[in-house]
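Example (one chain per record):
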Amino acid sequence: MAPATPVFTLPIEPSGSIICTQPVQNIYLLTFESLPDNRMTPAFCQAFRLALDIIDHKFPRGVVVTTSSVAKFYSNGLDYESAIKTEGFFEESLYPLWRRLLTYPMPTVALINGHAFAAGLMTAMHHDYRVMNPHKGFLCLNELDFGAPLKPPMASIFRQKLPRPDTYRTMVLESKRFNALEALKEGIIDGLGGWEECRGFVEEMKLVSRGQSGVYGRLKEEMWRESVALLDMGERGEEEESVRRAAVREEIGVRALRGVQEWENRVGVGRTKL
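Predicted structure:
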């Protein structure tokens, strides 16, 4: 990673930090470290969002690149048990960070140096672009493996941004681990490499100038309106939708059981055993 003097540093309790450097004019590099694997705790999310706010309000328009100084991980996602037990975590910490990234008024690039799993991958997807280390790390939605349903904003970002529905299916229903080459082929990421390649990508795409007109964030807000709306609804909207879906599932289950019972009555119970 390019050495540069920190522009500012923010703590991530209890012992981590986010360091902002400017290795190239108007390219702001946010490097986070929250050992052991950059879990997306309330402190992590709030420090990340504050860093974005500081750049937005105190520095000239440019490009924000985010990465990790933990060699093995970009982010290993949520501390799931803690997240679901922490009141207000999604509405006050995680969703505001994702919305800020998704509608940020200048280009954002996730420089994925290692593994990005579950909410770590979701966070990368809320950036405009993704460049990944070709030698290390996997991208994976592993909610299937630990029995966690996807919340609406979590599913929406992949539904909107992945170019192919079969890639989305493989991600969600097979928990496939994509290496960098596979991720590039499937359109999950936009380029391969480390800092130098990421800088070259920014320059080639002329990203530094993209936010200058003042409408960059508003354009993204309209592009990703489904995800933005779900993030804005938060837990309240999710609870209402969850209740509705549960009622529908129950109705389908009752109807299905009734149909099976009627079928058994027609053919005889003894003949239905396999």
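Caption: The radius of gyration is 21 Å.
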